[in-house]
């Protein structure tokens, strides 16, 4: 996703979080909670970690106590400015936010004990190079069925039309080809319910489901979607996440 999109979001909302009001309902485990639990399991007070695609840094600021130090990289100047602002406000000293391309970082081989990626770019060969032997790579990504209904109504969107290609299995194949051992993999399907048309509109302005979303130009599509998927709980949107934990083999 273009850094220009995230710079625009940072300018408009001050971070990667919009004020849209919604609730989430999960049929089982919560993917973000699973991701967090897995990350804590592989953390340690002497470990060095890399956050790939850190955005406004809020997540890494929430987990920095579990590591000796975290390097967090992104290509959005606006998001990194927000991250450093939050870092200063929290008086955090063991995180370094850096403007860097994840596909070709300037870090030396075998530098990190842990690399984690929350819906960021995935360059598995580079991640393998950066990890120490026995190090871990953990990701939470966007599944192929994410926001499928609204994309169909809009006739476009992130990964539009790739409904039948399993993102989980695609990533697993690529990770194994890069040399990783798969320790955990799982799909998570759940629903979000937006309190109002306005909340859904605001939400779409701050996420890359439609990088070119325009409240006025897309009004007809959004009204159709809102009418079709309104329920007593709100305007429903189906979400899809994947979580994968891997390890770089020893030796």
Characteristics:
nine-stranded mixed beta sheet, 251 residues, single chain, Rossmann fold, 9 helices, globular, 9 strands, 35% helix, alpha/beta
Would you kindly provide a written description of the structure presented here, covering whatever features stand out?
The chain has helices at residues 3-13, 31-41, 58-63, 77-90, 124-130, 148-154, 167-178, 197-205, 219-228; strands at residues 22-25, 44-52, 67-74, 95-99, 112-118, 131-142, 181-194, 230-231, 234-247. The chain has one domain (3-247): Vaccinia Virus protein VP39 (Rossmann fold, 3-Layer(aba) Sandwich). Helix 1 crosses helix 4 and helix 6 (148-154) crosses helix 9 (219-228). Strands 1, 2, 3, 4, 5, 6, 7, 8 and 9 form a 9-stranded mixed β-sheet that branches. It is α/β, with parallel strands linked by helices. Helices cover 35% and strands 30% of the residues.
Please name the CATH topology.
Answer: Rossmann fold
**Poorly predicted runs:** none
User: What CATH first level would be assigned?
Assistant: Alpha Beta
CATH architecture: 3-Layer(aba) Sandwich
Corresponding CATH superfamily:
Vaccinia Virus protein VP39
The major beta sheet can be summarized as: 9 strands, mixed
Which of globular, elongated, flat, extended, rod-shaped describes the shape? globular
Mean pLDDT: 93
Distance between the termini: 35 Å
């Amino acid at each position: 996703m273009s850094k220009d999109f995230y710079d625009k979001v940072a300018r408009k909302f001050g971070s990667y979080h919009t004020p849209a009001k919604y609730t989430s309902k999960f049929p089982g485990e919560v993917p973000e909670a699973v991701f967090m639990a897995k990350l804590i399991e592989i953390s340690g007070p002497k470990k060095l970690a890399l956050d790939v695609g850190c955005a406004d840094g809020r997540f890494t600021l929430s987990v920095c106590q579990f590591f000796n130090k975290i390097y967090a990289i992104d290509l959005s100047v606006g998001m990194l400015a927000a991250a450093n602002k939050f870092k200063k406000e929290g008086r955090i000293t063991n995180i370094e936010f850096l403007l860097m391309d994840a596909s070709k970082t300037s870090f030396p081989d075998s530098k990190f004990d842990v690399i984690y990626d929350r819906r960021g770019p995935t360059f598995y060969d580079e991640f393998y190079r950066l990890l120490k032997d026995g190090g871990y790579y953990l990701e939470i990504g966007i599944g192929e069925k994410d926001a499928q209904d609204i994309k169909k109504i809009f006739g476009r969107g992130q990964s539009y039309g790739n409904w039948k290609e399993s993102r989980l299995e695609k990533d697993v194949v690529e990770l194994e080809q890069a040399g990783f051992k798969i320790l955990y993999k799982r799909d998570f399907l759940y629903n979000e319910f937006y309190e109002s048309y306005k909340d859904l509109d605001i939400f779409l302005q701050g996420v890359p489901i439609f990088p070119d979303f325009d409240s006025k130009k897309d009004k007809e599509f959004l009204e159709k979607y809102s009418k079709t998927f309104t329920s007593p709980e709100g305007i429903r949107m189906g979400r899809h996440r994947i979580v994968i934990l891997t390890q770089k083999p020893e030796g």
